[in-house]
Amino acid sequence: MTFGIGPTGSPAQVAALQQQLTSNPTDRIARHNLAVELRKCGRLDEALVQIERTWGEGLKLAETATMRGHLLADAGRFDEALEAYREAVRIKPELVEAHSTMASLLPQLGRGEEALDSLREALLRAPQAGALWVEAMSIARGHHQWEPLLDLAAEAEVRFGTDTMISAFVANALSALGRDDEALARIDAALEQEPTYPPGHTIRAHILLRKGDPAGAAGAAETAARLLPKDQSSWALLGIAWRLLDDEREHWLCDYDNLVMPIDLGLDPRLLGVLEARHQLAAHPADQSLRGGTQTRGNLFEADDPVIGGLARATKAAIEQRIAGLRPDPAHPFLGRLTGSVSFPTSWSVRLASSGFHISHIHPAGWLSSAYYVSLPPEVAAGEGQGALAFGVPDAALGLDLAPRRVVQPQEGHLVLFPSYLWHGTTKFESRAPRVTVAFDSLPVDNSGQPV
Questions:
Q1: Which one, of 317, 263, 444, lies nearest residue 309 by Cα?
Q2: Contact 203/171 with Cβ under 8 angstroms?
């Protein structure tokens, strides 16, 4: 089953590979590919059987070890999965996928201090692999490991020379460490060399907001948005800068009354049990917004489960009905991309425990984001402010004391939709019961199903 949710397996391809293996059972590449397709179809147990057989029959490729790691992790066998990923990078140290998956998984197992270990070892073995340096710096930034990020950037510059991307990482770290003047000087120098580098202007806008210069920040964010209009980060910063400047364009951009869209979707009573079974990890991902909870792995809407499939279908229909009533605006980053149809490139569930919350954040690669409430503690359902969804409060790292522009009190079975560039977070709650939600990022697609 598919719901326009990104890469999914093809039953026809599965059948073709099975037929190929019937004709030639020793074709290990075909068996590896069958495991990949079965996983895309959500047939995880079958996929694991095939990848284990492939590995056991001697196809000791790094890519096979990585797929084996994915499937073992899907099965909740996390220690075995980590060993499979380690085997993958022993075979092929420059294989970024295995490193990035380990770096994401380890903090969720309470072992965040190990997140960069495999990359550090790989950089000793394959120091010429530029993609490894980028991945290591990206992970350090995502995990807020600022001093290690500066060290990695310095080593990368020794090897590759001064580079705009490396300078952007350095500026991120310096600003996070409170060294905004140094950060601004570094990114300004980089932009002199490469003035059309969009992340540089976004970083510059962030620093200028921290330094109390909303006019300068607005100019930098406008440049970034012009260069890369689909990136949500520049629009998020621009909305804050315009707010500080009392610029009416904030209301045009954010329009909290009309673009924050609660919908009563209803609730399948089976859904909570299905989701609880998928919350197998001990802690939140280090690079995500939740604190005091867990997040499911993979793209939830790709699961081969009738309950989740029903939710995906209902959600897609509700979104497309709701956006059909919006008025297109070619100049607007959200309303200018309306096509009438959507896909779900990412989807997940979050389970927050008592005192859990989401820090204020955005979804840089999204277009339409969401919160769907599956189970709420009585203290949240009472509607007295606990566990509420607040819009318009920017990232605490900006150091701005701004009140929410809109607060939505959750209700079970309700879906809240909003543009991905809107700052959003949740208030804490105290309860013995968890707060369970489903979330996703959605993209507009054309008649052929391609994102626009």
A1: 317
A2: yes
Sign of CA dihedral 383, 389, 392, 398: positive
CA–CA separation, 172 and 157 (whole Å): 16
DSSP class per residue in 186-221:
HHHHHHHH-TT-HHHHHHHHHHHHHTT-HHHHHHHH
Cα separation values, 440 from 5, 119, 366, 383, 417, Å: 10, 29, 9, 24, 10
Rounded to whole angstroms, the Cα distance separating 358 from 367 reads: 19
Q: Rounded distance, CA 361 to CA 350, Å?
A: 15
Burial 375-402 (b: 16+ CB within 10 A, else e): bbbebbbeeeebbbbbbbbbbeebebee
Specify whether the CB–CB gap between 384 and 442 falls below 8 A.
Answer: no
Which single residue is written with the structure tokens 């599956």?
Answer: 374
Torsion, Cα 276 281 283 288, to 10 degrees, reads -80
Q: How many CA atoms lie within 13 A of 356 on its CB side?
A: 24
Q: Per-residue pLDDT averaged across 91-116, rounded?
A: 95
Q: What is the mean pLDDT of residues 314-343?
A: 97
Q: Read off the pTM.
A: 0.92
